[in-house]
Structure formats: C-alpha cells, structure tokens
Amino acid sequence: MIKHAPRILIHVMNPPAPEILVLYFSRDGSTAAMARHVARGIEAAPGMRARLRRIEGGETGASSDAPPVARVEDLAECAGLVLGSPTYFGNMAGPVKSFIDQTSSLWLTGALIGKPAAVFTSTASQHGGQESTLLSMMIPLLHHGMLLVGLPYSEPALLKTRAGGTPYGASHTSGDGNLPLTDEEKTLCQALGRRVADTARRLMA
Q1: Counting beta carbons within 10 angstroms of the beta carbon of residue 70, is it exposed (0 to 12), middle (13 to 18) or buried (19 or more)?
Q2: CA 22 → CA 12, 100, 126, 174, distances in Å?
Q3: What letter would DSSP give residue 34?
Q4: CA angle at 26 for the pair 24 and 29, rounded to the nearest 5°
C-alpha cells in the first residue's frame, strides 16, 4: 500500500500595499482638512495607501483621532510624499522647515531619490502667497532628488476654481480660518494625491 504524504498548505502573505506619506503642519485645521482629501485621492489609486502624519507643534488640543506625529523614518518607508503647510509670509511654516532640516541622513543615503512628491498650502487671503509657498516647499524636495508632480490644466477644477488651486499644487483660501474647502479645492486635493500615487505605482512597476 502506497502511503501519501500529508498535504502541507502554505499561506502566501500578500505584501503590504505601498504607501504615500501625506505630511502636514496645520494651525487652525485648514491644512489638515486638505491633507485628508489628499489621502482620499491616494487611496482611490489601485493598490495604494495613504500614511497620514502631522508635524509636531500644530493644532492645539489635537483630538484622539488625529494622525500620529511624523518621524523622519516615515519619509524613507513610503513610496512618495505629499507635503502640506499653511503660508507664513509667503513661505512654508517654520515647523515644516525644521522638520525638513532633520532629513540630512536621508539626503546622505539618497533614500528619497526618484520618489514622486507634491505640495499643498492654505492661506487666509486669495493672494496671500500660495504660489511662492508651494515653490519654496519644492526646493528641498528637489535637493533630495524627488520627482515633483503638479496639477495639469487637464483637471477641469483648475479652470473653474474661484478660490484655491494652482498648477504648482493644491491650495485653499481659508479667510479667517473658518472657510470650508470649496468643491473645486477638494477635487484638486484629491487629484493631487491620486497623481502622486499613480506616478509611484508606475515607477514601481
């Protein structure tokens, strides 16, 4: 009689979905609201996930469901980056710059070279320095060798918006901090997240 060896079932674990880091600083919640829409856009891309992280020193009394405080390691662990900051005098907020200044170890190893990145911002007034802030945020990312992704005019909301929205990245006009995102601003935030996620997915193929 031939004895058959018992069948051994091997469970193959699916690798974790690649993540795009949504890293932001927010004082009154406007940039945080944008970050959540960017994350939705990322997760609309097949097989991609968003890792939402905040830079320390932002919203006071952050709720229990606020995302974790960012670590430098989050940048290396993710397949791309979408960086957000309110506009302070036409530039990124100090805590954002301070966080980026801690990433020298990643620059030395080239950990971010070739990864896609994008930027977003919010201002109190429509002409409060949105585009200069977005451009200033791109500079250190270029030094890291990242591939900048913007918003092309094939996005209809970019032509329809009467508030925020630029080809350099998503933006929001918050007024006194209480103006909600317009439909066009939400759409452009999500489009930016989706574009970074789609770009990362193609680069990894």
Answers
A1: buried
A2: 30, 14, 24, 20
A3: H
A4: 120
Residue 7 — very low, low, confident or very high, per pLDDT cuts 50/70/90? low
**190: confidence class by pLDDT, cuts 50, 70, 90:** very high
| 61-84 mean pLDDT | 89
Report the chain's mean pLDDT, rounded to a whole number: 92
Q: Give the residues across from 172 on adjacent strands.
A: 122
Return the amino acid letter for 42: I
**Confidence (pLDDT) at 160:** 95
pLDDT at 5 over 70: no
CA angle 205, 52, 172 (to 5 degrees): 100
* Distance in angstroms (rounded) separating the CA atoms of residues 36 and 43: 11
